[in-house]
Amino acid sequence: MTRLEKELDTELIEKELDTELRSLYYKWRTIGYPAGYFWRMLTSKDPGYGKGPLGTVRHLLGGEPSMGSGFMRLLRANKLEWTVEALLLDPKWKPLFTDLELQKAKSRLDRYRRK
After folding, report:
1. Which sequence spans correspond to the domains of the chain?
2. pLDDT digits (tens, 9 = 90+) for 16-34
């Protein structure tokens, strides 16, 4: 695979990630979680808010979930399968994220599934 082919492939995977993240957002709304900050990070063109799909995921993985975070809301709703972390378990996202980022997502899910 040439460098250009790899870049195009990565772009397609990132667009698919964007679609999947939007799908999660709409699922969250069905359980009363509006996720406004998430939506702004994902979609805003304002550089103060907008991060795009990769930046949004990296931001969410960057710290531990607080009690008011989306992750914790989904945990309380028994919907861990709707978390960004669960989405990242699919190997198709591997080209977009480091092994450390993917491991962090898996570890967070494993830790909270046991509680």
Report:
1. 3-113
2. 999 999 999 999 999 999 9
Q: Show contacts of 4-7: CB within 8 Å, 24+ apart.
A: none
The residue with tokens 């250009």 is 4
pTM here is 0.90
Is the CB of residue 89 less than 8 Å from the CB of residue 106? yes
Tell me the DSSP string of the chain.
Answer: --HHHHHHHHHHHHHHHHHHHHHHHHHHHHTT---HHHHHHHH---TTT--HHHHHHHHHHSSPPPTTSHHHHHHHTT-GGGSHHHHTTSGGGGGGS-HHHHHHHHHHHHHHH--
**Hey, is 90 helix, strand or coil?**
coil
Contacts of 95 (CB under 8 A, 6+ apart): 9, 10, 13
